[in-house]
Amino acid sequence: MTFDYPGEVQTRPAEAHDWGALTQLDPVSAGGDAARCANIRRWCEEGSLIIADESRDPLGYGVLEYTFFEQGSSRC
């Protein structure tokens, strides 16, 4: 599979205002999962989410979360 992106893809830390666009991009939150929407907002606000974007339009994201979707321990 190939992807044709006319611009340059860059990564950047999410900002608090990015969460709305990301909830539309994420298939789980776009499907109406309120918990995922809340998580995306929290991750943006905490600074644990990295966005891949092109000209400030989000293409995807990654999260550094130590609890693995609240299933693990945050203790080291």
Characterization of the model:
The protein is an alpha+beta fold and 76 residues long. Helices cover 32% and strands 24% of the residues. A hairpin with a 2-residue loop joins strand 2 and strand 3 (57-63). Helix 1 packs across helix 3 (34-46). The model has no long low-confidence stretch (mean pLDDT 84).
Observed structural traits:
32% helix, 3 strands, globular, 76 residues, alpha+beta
What's the SSE blueprint?
Blueprint: E1 9-13, H1 19-25, H2 27-30, H3 34-46, E2 49-54, E3 57-63
Quaternary structure annotation: single chain
Strand order of the largest sheet: 1-2-3
Structural class, please?
Answer: alpha+beta
What is the strand tally? 3
Radius of gyration: 13 Å
Overall mean pLDDT score? Answer: 84
**Could you tell me how far the N terminus lies from the C terminus, measured between alpha carbons in angstroms?**
39 Å
* Helicity level: 25-40%
- As a percent range, the share of strand residues is 15-25%
Largest sheet: 3 strands, antiparallel
List segments where confidence is low: pLDDT < 50 over at least 5 consecutive residues. none
Shape: globular
